[in-house]
User: Fold D-alanine--D-alanine ligase from Tessaracoccus rhinocerotis.
Amino acid sequence: MDKRIRVALIFGGQSPEHGVSCLTAASVLGAIDRDRFDVVGVGIAASGRWTQVPLDVVASYRIVEGRVPHVAEPEHDAVWMVGADGCEVATRDGERLVDVHGVDVAFALLHGPFGEDGTIQGLFEMMGIKYVGSGVAASAIGMDKHHMKVAFAAAGLPVWPFVVATDQRWRDEPAAVLAEVDTLQYPVFVKPARGGSSLGITRVTDSAGVQAAIEAARAYDPKVVIEQGFVGARELECAVIANPAATGGCDVSAVGEIRVHAEDGFYDFEAKYIADDEASLDVPADIAPELSRRIQDIAAQAFNAVGSEGLARVDVFADTDGEVWVNEINTMPGFTEISMYPKLWEHSGTSYPELVARLIDLALLRPVGLR
Ligand SMILES: Nc1ncnc2c1ncn2[C@@H]1O[C@H](COP(=O)(O)OP(=O)(O)O)[C@@H](O)[C@H]1O
Ligand SMILES: [Mg+2]
Assistant:
């Protein structure tokens, strides 16, 4: 009898980060220990339809001529069920169900809304299935750049000035929003509240550009956050992984640095995934040990401030005086083999295959239901 643990890798999804998620799936599939884990590939097409994807197709996902891969629209839809023996995934073939697999643990490799934001975590909770990563509330808070700042500030973490333009407020009183933005120092960064991969973000250097930038962000999310920009600050990142045996419940990695080469540039989508020469990732960052410890401390606090589970990457800015400010937490950070999160762990002594196994083991340890 096959005693392997069956893992459902779930990828694609309805957010603009669909293609990145497919790349992550190919990476994780290449690293997962197939002697311990039996994998089923479950893709979510851009239309929202679910489908079982053969593993050779998952393994073939890659960037071709600057274009990211995607989950093809399904010929046959996948079905999830809760049965007497737990959760199962199957394929609907007309009136019949075929390819029925029991699933021990779900690993959603989804970034952005409808994946990283508590929605799929809610589905897992309802189905009583174990899953990798943060639960419903932490995922939702960590996805929303407004709510995450509220949680950080409440925990006493340093947060930089910002303005929130909800859909209602933007329609009711746009002039008041623009006036409030004018109290910040330029440049400002205008962001979709629940975005990711820098999509929809604009760096704005004076008040004349704010309105158009808010409209551009609203193409991604009706809720927009406008932040005062850091000038000359270093962009540093720290990986966190749950460790129930450790004080504070987590371990932190070494600190890494993102160095964007263009003077007025920022770490945008192009620099993150497409162009090799626009940004460098330094692992570890060339910073003083005290600054590194301060960032690790803040990362652990940020992890617990939103109630994260499993994994998260905490991104901060450090100014020239060594003062640190939290930018954001990502509860499903970039997770391809060359992403910052795995690279930080690699440097800290945990290889990518070990990391994948450890995250799944953490999910299996955790009880289902309220915890
Ligand atoms: N307040 C800020 N000051 C300076 N740069 C910023 C600021 N906010 C964002 N950036 C730049 O924009 C990038 C993307 O912003 P971020 O808030 O991390 O959004 P995302 O969730 O899309 O990654 C950051 O990595 C950084 O390069
Ligand atoms: Mg970011």
Summary: The longest strand covers residues 250-260.
